[in-house]
Target: Glycosyltransferase family 2 protein
Amino acid sequence: MAESKDFTITIAEDAHYTQYDSPATPEKGRRSLIPEDAIEKTSAFITEWTPFLLVASYYVFSTCLYMYCSDGLIAIFWFIYMTTNFYIAGATVLEAFMSITPCREARKVVTKADEKGWVFPTPDDKLLILDLLIVAYLPNEKDIIMDRAIYALEQIVYPRDKIRINILYNTPKPIEPLETELHNLTHRYPHARVIKVPGSTSKADNLNHFFTLNTGSDLIAIYDCDHYPHPNGPRWAVERFMADEEIDIVQGRCIVFNSNDSFLTSMIAVEFDKIYAVSHPGRATMWGFGLFCGSNGYWRTSLLRELKMDGSMLTEDIDSALRAVSRGAKTVHDLNVTSYELAPTTFPAFWKQRLRWAQGWAQASVKHLKLAFNKPQDQLHNKDSRKFTTRFGLLSLLLIREMSYYLVTQYTCLVLSFGIVKFPKSGSELFKLVYFQYPVSQWLFFISVICLLATLWITNQVKSEFISRWMIIVFSIQYPFYLVLSATIGLYGHARQVVRYSSWNPTARK
Model:
């Protein structure tokens, strides 16, 4: 009991109540019956729903504002939004065209290896020592961890004396017999290592614990637990390091293999092909920098041990990738280093995942935007780093991309205001309302559509075996709605960052 001159505060041990005794209280010992768990629940409720209210208010306020704007002001806004959307579409298609070269080079390498009977350039005894990490968060991934671990231990084609398959996991409570079965893998497979990370609550904690261990490896590969690495994926990655000593990170291509589970998974699968087979290699070629994307990525051990993972970041992988860029690290995207993963099968799971990504990107963008403006010495390769093209690419990625959420949603609110003020009476009026309010819109609209179709055509050329042409057509049709949804999620991520939302919601895997 803490006593003071004016009042006494007592903590009731039996029910977590706060009791106030005051001389001014008529009944001595009267309690203010406010359970601590009720306060915590109320606080969590407010934190959870405040971003929703902020985004809803943003949409309502913006739509109402446009309803009262003059025609001249509306014309200015319309031109700004159409022009900026045209820029985004143009940059996307340029990245897509730039991806054609790395795609062709990847095919040539495969053809050459096939002609030689899959004999790789580097002899087995000269290969670098590889630590391959499978990072699991239990119990969310308890149903798949054994399957993925055994697959990696048995199917990956790499000299056993040069690779160690490390299963890193954490769990808030013991899970038996699963944990015993995991640790028994070390008896069946000499190249297996199973590590339960004490006190860990995140992927970053698991990885940082491993980085404290002296394993003697040259390279570290990071995989999320839901991935199936291609048997030759590690070999392709290591060959890139062997061919170029300046390469610090090799990021592979992630492919969604459950595309037929639902409409949602089919659209995510097309999106992943567009991102990993087109946008990432195209951006690396166009702007001169690549990014580690969280899984199916290979690092030089010395660099990764030095950078570690920042557990305070929701997307610690993007943060580490941008910190590597700040050091002048050379990251390449290799389309032959493939891995297969699961997409969320339900919209709530998709929503939680993308909100975490959106908030994490917002965090990382604010923290690392300075990379677009400074030009330090390359600390890894002893040469000038971040040319103008690289810095402009970072500006586009970290600032313009985040601003695009507002541009897309403002355009949406503008169209909504048109629909309210002058509701269309026919399909042709609706089409004109949305796209052809002003003459300049025709040119910007048609050019943007051509850019989109060109991007999706290139995506079709490099689509995975789990994607059909019909899926790409459907993705193209619903793409405008997808952009609005993505922009809304981006705004939601910003709102969460404003209220300092910090819950980490891992995606359950089955």
